[in-house]
Design goal:
- This protein is an alpha/beta fold.
- It has one domain: Undecaprenyl pyrophosphate synthetase.
- The protein is built from 8 helices and 6 strands, in the order E-H-H-E-H-E-H-E-H-H-E-E-H-H.
- The protein has a 6-stranded parallel β-sheet, with helices on both faces.
- Strand 3, helix 4 and strand 4 form a beta-alpha-beta unit.
- Helix 3 runs parallel beside helix 4.
- The longest helix is centred in the middle third of the chain and has 24 residues.
- The N terminus is likely disordered.
- Bound molecules: 3-methylbut-3-enyl trihydrogen diphosphate (2 copies) and magnesium ion.
C-alpha cells in the first residue's frame, strides 16, 4: 500500500468516467455521441497527467456489468477501443506512455483483443505515464482470479495457506506492482465504486463531482488535485503534529 502522505501530487489516479449518456441526452444527441465526446476528455486528461508527472492513471472504460447495455452501444464502445489502439497509440507512444488493458479480455472479439495486445506490446518499454485502461474489469473478478492463482499454487505444494497475506494477494491482482490509487475521481454525481478497484481502494481518497465526463476538462482536473492536496491522509494513525511539516 502506498503510504507516502508527504507528497501532495497523487502517484496514482483512478477515474470512473461516468455521465457520457446524460451529456448526450441533454444535447438531444445519441449516447454514441456522448462516448465520442468522452474520448476527447480522455485525451485532455492523459495530456495533463503527463504534464503533472503522475505515475499511474487508471481509467474505467467498460465494466464487467456494462455487457447488459444494448448490443449497438457495446459495439460502438468496442470500435472506440480499437480506434484508440490503431489510430492514437502512436501519439501515446511518442509521449513515452505505457498503455495496458486490465480486465478479462477473453470476452472480447479476437480483433479487439489483438488491437489491445498490439497497443500494449508497442508501448511496454515506455518509462513515462502508466495508462491502465480497465475494460471488462470488475474488482470482484480481479480478486477471484487472484484467489484462483493462489489456490493453484497451494494445490501444487508451492505455497502454504499460511503464506497468504495482503502482499501476496496484491501481487496476484491485475494491478500487481503498481502503487494503490491515491485518488479516485468519479464524475456525473454518482457516488459509488461500481465494482472498480475494490482491494486497491482500501485507503484511496474519494472525489465525487457532478461534472459529466465529457465536460471534465483541465480546470476540473486541477480542482480535483487541489482538493486532494488539502486532504489529510492518516492511514489509521492520529493527525500529524503541524509543526512537523511546516
Ligand atoms: C460512462 O458513461 C461510460 C461507460 C460506462 C462506458 P455512461 O454511458 O454510463 O453515461 P450515463 O451514466 O448513462 O450518463
Ligand atoms: C461505471 O459506470 C463503469 C464505467 C465508467 C466504465 P456505470 O454507468 O456503468 O455505473 P452504474 O451502472 O451507474 O453504477
Ligand atoms: Mg453511467
Amino acid at each position: 500500500m502506498n503510504t507516502d502522505s508527504h507528497s501532495n501530487i497523487p502517484r496514482h489516479i483512478a477515474i470512473v468516467m461516468d455521465g457520457n449518456g446524460r451529456w448526450a441526452k441533454m444535447r438531444g444527441k445519441s449516447r454514441f455521441m456522448g462516448h465520442k465526446a468522452g474520448m476527447d476528455a480522455v485525451g485532455k486528461i492523459v495530456k495533463m497527467a503527463v504534464e503533472k508527472k503522475i505515475e499511474v492513471l487508471s481509467l474505467f472504460a467498460f465494466s464487467s456489468e456494462n455487457w447488459s447495455r444494448p448490443t449497438e452501444e457495446i459495439n460502438y464502445l468496442m470500435q472506440l477501443f480499437s480506434d484508440v489502439c490503431r489510430n492514437q497509440i502512436k501519439k501515446l507512444h511518442e509521449h513515452n506512455i505505457c498503455v495496458r488493458f486490465l480486465g478479462d479480455l477473453s470476452r472480447f472479439s479476437s480483433t479487439v483483443r489483438k488491437d489491445m495486445e498490439g497497443a500494449a506490446r508497442m508501448t511496454q518499454e515506455n518509462t513515462g505515464l502508466k495508462l491502465m485502461i480497465a475494460v471488462n474489469y470488475g474488482g470482484q473478478w480481479d480478486l477471484v482470479q487472484a484467489f484462483q492463482k493462489i489456490a493453484a499454487r497451494i494445490a501444487s505444494g508451492e505455497l502454504t495457506a499460511q503464506a497468504i497475506d495482503a502482499q501476496l494477494v496484491a501481487a496476484h491482482l491485475s494491478t500487481a506492482g503498481l502503487p494503490d490509487p491515491d485518488l479516485l475521481i468519479r464524475t456525473s454525481g454518482e457516488e459509488r465504486l461500481s465494482n472498480f478497484y475494490l482491494w486497491q481502494c482500501a485507503y484511496t481518497e474519494l472525489y465525487f463531482t457532478k461534472t459529466l465526463w465529457p465536460d471534465f476538462d483541465e480546470a476540473a482536473f486541477e480542482a480535483a488535485l487541489h482538493e486532494y492536496a488539502n486532504r489529510e491522509r492518516r492511514f489509521g494513525a492520529i493527525p500529524q503534529a503541524k509543526s512537523k511539516h511546516q
